[in-house]
## 1
Amino acid sequence: MEVFVDKPKCTGCDHCKDVCPVAVFEMYDKNAPEVNNDVAPDDMKWKGVDDPNVFKEWNGVNDGHDHFKKKSVAINGPSCILCQACLIECEGECIHIKDDSGTTYQSVYK
Ligand code: SF4
Ligand code: SF4
């Protein structure tokens, strides 16, 4: 299983880390050197600029999460069991998974 996060769209909400039963995700400060340590393609790597549409939607939303300070990194993608829990909890709709047959999945916020 291949898992990565489209970093500019990640709000840093922690939901993926909270729900994943096999610890695929780790949260890093957006300025940390580890922030691009997953298999995201170049156009989905963190380069210092949040996606403007996601930022507009979630900046200042007071739901107990500290938005736009951290980014999620799929440090343990091969352990994914495709339970899909993260795919319905992701505020930025920015988690991508590819299974061993090549089928792809992307998060859609419920
Ligand atoms: S689909 Fe994979 S990465 Fe997402 S919560 Fe389930 S095991 Fe974790
Ligand atoms: S659930 Fe989505 S938006 Fe929230 S921290 Fe994880 S990858 Fe980022």
## 2
Amino acid sequence: MGGIELKALPVSFATHVVGAIAAVMVLVWSIHFRGGLVWESENKNLIFNLHPVLLLIGLIIIGGEAIISYKSLPLKKKEKKLIHLVLHGIALILAIFGVYMAFKFHNESNIANLYSLHSWIGIGVVVLYAIQWTYGFVVFFYPGGTPLIRKESLPWHILFGLFLYILAVGTATLGFLEKLTFLENSGIAKYGSEAFLVNFTAIATILFGTLVVLTALSQGPGEDEYSYTAI
Ligand code: HEM
């Protein structure tokens, strides 16, 4: 992809920093304010906590790092392709676990599944992400499509990938809104420190997503020396 007249490396650095901040924020929220990360508990609310952590750190942050790996790493294209597909694979697996935790929490608390807009779009995002990953693997990695199929697929892969990523960031934002609304309705202070932390985590998520897209559209490092393999 040609890209806008902006060097990707400094933008990618800002992206890593904001990603690290967002990861710390969601961990502080779920561990310090919400009681910690557990798989099994009598207190079913704790089971939910892994959901935002796995989705934010997995799908959004590791998935975002996967997207920008072509622009943020001074490596050969073949190596970057492997890093891209492995990071997206990790992001997808963590996302599936994260969604499973929300279902587990609902089922063990006798709460209905899939009743909200957040959950509907969320399921759509994870299913489309799995399809996008599988198509990318088969066409660009193994067994690999013909040169014509690769060439014609690449712009769609990029467009659809960015679209899906932006949708994932929107879904996470909806999730923060929904959970904070539940918490406020059950008594936490509307202007308390937890409410501020959740809203600022959502803002950090949006900022990270913006920087990921900006990095993806910028000029990668050493494209001339390193882009010698056909993608
Ligand atoms: C892109 C990331 C995310 C995806 C794909 C996603 C997906 C989902 C899905 C599919 C469900 C339905 C589970 C069920 O019906 O049993 C769900 C539930 C839920 N999620 Fe997320 N989620 C994401 C991020 C977040 C984040 C960051 C939060 C913040 C706390 C959050 C909060 C919630 C809440 C409160 C529920 C339970 C209520 C409901 O079903 O809407 N989600 N999520």
